[in-house]
From TrEMBL:
Name recorded for this polypeptide: Cytochrome P450
Keyword flag Iron: yes
Alphabetized InterPro entries for the sequence: Cyt_P450, Cyt_P450_B, Cyt_P450_CS, Cyt_P450_sf
Keywords: Heme, Iron, Metal-binding, Monooxygenase, Oxidoreductase
Record family assignment: Belongs to the cytochrome P450 family.
Organism of provenance: Phenylobacterium conjunctum
Keyword rRNA processing attached: no
Pfam families with a match to the protein in the record: p450
């Protein structure tokens, strides 16, 4: 079995479950060479992924959560880091700045508005009978929600979403420097937001961030820009990719789709969790060992890169019965699609509400789904989901 978890080709039609299966069975913690880098340990069993993600004292999010070490262009950030690349207690202090916006009660208060946005999104395509499901449906919802949260025009959310796709596309699959250029454009837009919100603060997350204090001081400009990048970037990943890959999974499992539609109100909650497990939109997160430690029978050295593969953990037969099958009624379903521990996804409550609203609207108003062309998957070894998915349908 050839194992290559770096090449976007391995992820060209979704996650490489054949490779993951072999790794779990034969080498659950395995050294993986890295051209141009020092290599890393791939971690593929549920138990080990769960343990690494929760143990920030042994496995650090610094200097980065990406496999590749920080590129030279990151030096432009100076001493500043994105919240995802901090450990507690620093991470905890920054997380507190936005935590209240993403609690379950706060997310539920937005439920009615999110459902209205879902209606608006389907309204725009329902009469046509065809659409690119990623661009015109799945990608619209998180773009609109994060734009509203930040106090931005909805159309701007759509343009920012396009930049996140470039940021997540593997460097070898696009023009040289395209990812860095997209980050620069995001910062350029964020700088305008910063100036506008300082001059005219509003009742929005951007204004509150600029007024907030961490360790008794206001955020510096680069700290705000990195927060802005994180919120726009992470705010779209799971929802966009889960909706597109999830609908594809439902189309490939018509018995499960029929089961879900037969009692949508009562079955949508467990179905959503199973789609999150089955599709696992975030492929991996990296940690760096802070000390020598044993993991899965391997001796990890201080400074080694340790990479958790969530898509593999979520198909581990030691944790899930018949893991490669889509079983929408599966319960309990303690998947790791949102991670675990101190770094568990802060936006998971609002993401679930977005997914619920969008699936409800799509499955009650659209039917007879057919692919108009094969889906084109995002050329990325970090985020898994279709980049384009031409779809034909009928109005229900």
């Amino acid at each position: 079995m050839k194992i290559d978890l770096l090449s976007p080709q391995s992820f060209a039609a979704g996650q490489p479950h054949d490779q993951f299966h072999w790794l779990r069975e034969n080498a659950p913690v395995r050294w993986h060479d890295e051209p141009g880098g020092k290599g890393f340990w791939s971690v593929t069993r549920y138990e080990d992924v769960w343990a690494v993600d929760r143990d920030f004292q042994a496995f650090s999010s610094e200097p980065t959560i990406m496999i590749a070490d920080p590129a030279e262009e990151s030096a432009a950030f100076g001493p500043y880091k994105m919240m995802l690349m901090m450990d507690p207690p620093e991470h905890t202090g920054f997380r507190k700045l936005i935590r209240s916006e993403f609690t379950l009660p706060e997310a539920k208060m937005r439920g009615e508005r999110i459902q209205a946005l879902a209606r608006q999104i389907v309204d725009a395509v329902i009469d046509k009978g065809d659409c690119d499901f990623v661009e015109q449906v799945a990608g619209e919802m998180p773009s609109f929600v994060i734009a509203e949260l930040m106090g931005l025009p909805l159309e701007d959310g759509r343009e920012l979403y396009k930049l996140t796709e470039v940021i997540h596309t593997a460097p070898e699959a696009q023009a040289p420097g395209a990812g860095a250029q997209a980050v620069f454009k995001m910062f350029e837009y964020g700088s305008k937001v910063m100036a506008e919100k300082r001059a005219r603060p509003g009742d929005d997350l951007a204004s509150r961030l600029l007024a907030a204090e961490v360790d008794g001081r206001r955020l510096e400009d680069m700290e705000f820009l990195l927060f802005f990048l994180l919120l726009v970037d992470a705010g779209g990943d799971t929802t966009r990719n889960l909706l597109a890959a999830g609908l594809l999974a439902l189309m490939e499992n018509p018995d499960q789709l029929a089961w879900l539609k037969a009692d949508l109100d009562n079955r949508l909650a467990p179905a959503q969790e199973e789609l999150l497990r089955y599709c696992s939109p975030v492929i991996y997160m990296r940690r760096t060992a802070k000390r020598d430690i044993e993991l899965g029978g391997q001796q990890i050295r201080e400074g080694d890169k340790v990479v958790m593969y969530f898509g593999s953990a979520n198909r581990d037969p030691a944790r899930f019965e018949r893991p490669d099958e889509l079983i929408l009624s599966r319960t309990p379903n303690e998947h790791l699609a949102f991670g675990a521990g101190a770094h568990a996804c802060l936006g998971q409550h609002i993401a679930r509400i977005e997914i619920d609203a969008m699936l409800r609207e799509v499955l009650t108003r659209m039917t007879d789904f057919q692919l108009a062309a094969p889906p084109e998957w995002l050329a990325s070894n970090f985020i898994s989901g279709p980049k384009a998915m031409p779809l034909r349908f009928r109005e229900a």
